[in-house]
């Protein structure tokens, strides 16, 4: 019993030291550390902010319309007298929810396609040609066509807000998995030639166990980087769709919808464009820095430099 405990103790210590090395490498990347702090602050603000800032983003006060920043309205008001700060908080909650959910969908699809294409040779050709087909499609016209075709149906089935949320998440998810699939496939093809994978194959390890125990843990780095970039891409895509007027309804604010609604009042209140645009830019920038830091921290060739 004591020999077994002694044998397991260095292994646990080694595992802990590896994760400490990953954390240390991530924190040494100043941009990634600052990006993580800012992204956490944004998540906390959009989650808890509406509970602390009691003004309803949909409350109309015509007497206070088109005001600049004041103590009562730090970011001013819109053409209907609604508080811009409350709308930015509410819109951030929706935009981040769309970004994270669409990222998870695209990540699952991309990882599944990449692992199957890289590990099973007979599926490589068809799956990569399917990936090339999606990459060749003009994404923005495709997004517009899908939204125009299914928007009314989903609105009638799930309600105006939930239906549009499902549609936008689905559309962004199925049109942004291709880069992840290509990256994961390339890493899987390289891993198949490594000694530990060949040794596992030689003793008859089943394919499912080989993928779960040896392949997936070693492609964690590109998957994590793709996840962070996927959040940024989903936020930008949702903002673009909302800016074009094809996203959420006007009484359901997102950062892109706030930009769309404020374009007609740029000369009167230019700060109305600045606040949601700044929120989108800084959030996407912080997520990209987090992705850079995770890539460096999870790569053993870079870690420790």
Can you offer a commentary on this structure?
The chain is an all-alpha fold and 305 residues long. Helices cover 75% and strands 0% of the residues. The chain contains 12 helices and no strands. Helix 3 (84-119) crosses helix 10 (220-243) and helix 11 runs antiparallel to helix 12 (271-298). It is globular and about 75 Å long.
List keywords for this structure.
305 residues, mainly alpha, 12 helices, disordered N terminus
Taking the sheet with the most strands, its summary is: none
Mean pLDDT equals 82
Number of strands: 0
**SS-derived structural category:** mainly alpha
Strand fraction equals: under 5%
Share of helix, binned: over 70%
Unreliable residue stretches: 1-15
Number of helices: 12
H/E element string? HHHHHHHHHHHH
How far apart the termini lie comes to: 39 Å
Radius of gyration, in Å, reads: 23 Å
Shape: globular
Question: What's the short version?
Answer:
The chain is mainly alpha-helical. It has 12 helices and no strands.
Secondary structure blueprint with pairings:
Elements lengths: L1 H27 L1 H23 L31 H36 L1 H16 L2 H20 L1 H15 L3 H14 L3 H8 L4 H9 L4 H24 L11 H8 L8 H28 L7
Helix pairs in contact: 1-12, 2-3, 2-12, 3-4, 3-6, 3-7, 3-10, 3-11, 5-6, 8-9, 10-11, 10-12, 11-12
